[in-house]
Structures are given as C-alpha cells and as structure tokens.
Amino acid sequence: MKMLRKVLICGAVILSLMLLHNTSQALLFDFEKADQINQWQDLAGKMAIKDGLFCSMNAADGPLVCMIKDWKDEWTDYTITVKAQGSVADADWGIAFRVQNISNHYSWQFCNGSLEFVAYVGGRTETAIQGQAEVLNEWQDYKVVVKGNTFDLYFNDKLIKTFKHDALDTGSVGIFNWINGGSAVGAHGGVAFDDFEVEGKGIPATNLAVEPKYKLAVTWAGIKK
Fold this sequence. Notes:
Layout: H1 2-23, E1 24-29, E2 40-42, E3 47-50, E4 53-56, E5 63-68, E6 78-86, E7 92-101, E8 104-111, E9 114-121, E10 124-131, E11 140-147, E12 150-155, E13 158-164, E14 172-178, E15 191-201, H2 216-224
Antiparallel strand pairs: 1-15, 2-5, 3-4, 4-15, 5-14, 6-11, 6-15, 7-8, 7-14, 8-9, 9-10, 11-12, 12-13
C-alpha cells in the first residue's frame, strides 16, 4: 500500500507539472550571470550587466530600448514584471512591450513626474496616468498584463489603470529608459533593472536567469528522496 501511495503521489505531481508546462511558463532573468546579456538586443543605448543588475550605461538623450531577442509573435497575452530604479535626475524608466523597432513600441514608465503609457508609433505620444514624484536609488515594481490590445498597468503591486491601444499587435518585450545627454551615469548606470520576468501561455520556461529549480528532472530527484 505504501508503495502504491508513493506511485500515485508521484504520478499526480508529474501530471501537474505537465499541465503547468502546457499552459503558462516564464522567461526569467535575475542578471546574476553576465552571459544573460546575450539573450537581449540593444535598439539604442548600451546595456551592461554589473553586480547582478541590468544597467543603462550611456546618456543618449533619447529612448534607450533593449528587448529579448528570441521572441515569437504568437505570444500575444502575457504578464511582464521588473524592478527598476533611477540614479540620475530627470531620467525615465520602465517596461517596453510590443517592441518592433526603436520607432514602434509601447512602454509603461516613470516620466517627468508621472506614471505614463507612452506609444512610439509615428512619433512619441505620452498619456499621463498618475502623478508620481521622482524617487532615485529605490527599487520600484512595474508590471504590465497584456491581453490582446488591452493592458493592465501596475506600479508597486497596485493596479493604476487599464489602457487600450490598437496600433501594435505584435512585438518583443524588454525595458525602456531615457537618460538626458551629458548625465554622469556612474558605475551602475543611470537606470538599473533587476528580476525581469515574462509569463504567458506558450512561453517556454528557461533557466537563463535562475537555477533550474523548476525543471522536471530536479523535481523528480526530490520526489525520489
């Protein structure tokens, strides 16, 4: 009976993992390993991984966007989260998504004393959502839940607004920042990011950023013990 019970428990766990694999997965980046930067593409500016942080290392006085390279257009519904902080005055930072190129993308970001949805489509259009004082050198949590062309915009775990925009249907995800030209960015850049995650149906789980604690082989080893 004990053996049968163990087999049934193991089977249930494996079935749960298989169902999870077929529904929702996540790309995770904790930036603890320098080679994670190979999974990203700079569209403007220069990003670097330093001391476990993803850092913007130049002041280009323009949109500095970095996106995940291996992105599939069929991934249309997903949740993106990241921690971000600025270290220079009058910088902007946040999440980029539906990124097609430097001239066509959306972002949810801190910008000029407010939280804003910004669309780069035939130019830059800013939509101020909520006033937000500039706070430097403190982590802030940004999240976007993408459902078709509707976006739930979160700041520090609070839903700020649900916003809709129909211009861009596909595109990669990544980070957005803007640092004024001539700013001294310092050792960790003018804007730093950590713990970037994108989760959604069909998106493969990877260990690009973290130890493979969610891999089936590791879980099975734990069950056998």
